[in-house]
Design a protein that fits this description.
One of its GO terms (molecular function) is ribonuclease P activity. By secondary structure, this protein is of the alpha+beta class. The chain has 4 helices and 6 strands, in the order E-H-E-E-H-E-E-E-H-H. It has one domain: 2-Layer Sandwich (Alpha-Beta Plaits).
Length: 135
């Protein structure tokens, strides 16, 4: 069995809270495509792999993105510079940057922090309710 990496060897992360202004609602997969293409267009494939953008959550129109700490300025500028998606104008506004998910949700997205086990319980409850309705 492999051992976990000690905290000193793990990559340092930052969390970018953002807001997307677009004429219609985007799905999570479309937001991932928009973010990746913005970083690739501005910074290149090598820069995209260095910054490693990862969508943590997205509730229209706000979202949370995890990136590598050293590439913060490049990713912020890439998101700001991206201006067109499917021949329609799009604006990505960076609301703020934080070092933890909890603080970025509370401060920039105005969402209360929910404990992880409560999220899992809620998802199980929703699945159970859906399976009851299907029967």
């Amino acid at each position: 069995m492999l051992k976990r990496l000690p905290p000193t060897l793990r990559e340092k992360k930052r969390y970018i809270s953002f807001k997307i202004l677009y004429h219609k609602e985007l799905s999570e997969s479309e937001v991932v495509f928009v973010v990746r293409s913005a970083v690739i267009n501005y910074y290149g494939v090598w820069g995209c792999s260095k910054s490693n953008p990862w969508l943590i959550s997205y509730n229209h129109p706000k979202g949370l993105l995890r990136i590598h700490r050293n590439e913060l300025d490049f990713v912020k500028s890439a998101l700001i510079m991206f201006n067109e998606y499917r021949n329609h104008p799009i604006n990505i506004i960076v609301l703020g940057v934080s070092g933890s998910i909890k603080k970025s949700r509370e401060k920039f997205l105005n969402e209360p922090h929910e404990k992880y086990y409560k999220v899992i319980q809620r998802k199980k409850r929703i699945k159970r309710d859906i399976s009851k309705k299907c029967k």
